[in-house]
Design brief:
Elements: H1 4-24, H2 46-66, H3 68-85, H4 87-95, H5 99-107, H6 109-119, H7 124-127
Helix pairs in contact: 2-3, 2-6, 3-4, 5-6
Length: 131
Amino acid sequence: MISPTPRRAAGFALVLAAAALGLTGCGGDSGYQTQPPQPTEPTISQASVEELCGILDGQKGTWKALGPRVARVAFTGAMKLWTVNDTVANAAIAYNRHIVDTVTISTCPQVRDATIKSLDVPDLKVALGGF
């Protein structure tokens, strides 16, 4: 059995530690963020962009034959399938819908232009309307 003196000393030390921890929360800084963290734009990998360019290149003839209205629906389906397989691309599009134009302009501009022409839209962001 512990004598009363060490128990009192241990209890006193515990009270001091609790008081010290309690006092650290006092003052002007509550410890909570006042501004929500800012999201950062996800980066689509180059391999994924090349896959997208391949999808667009493979479908442009079909989309041209279907006509713009039906082609836009087919384009949306192709984009959904691509983003299901690449969740980073899905997050990137949710963050910035213009990213599809940005990555295709730098990687496959002729394929992008042919796709835009087949879909009869000014850019791919507009074609993502149902996305």
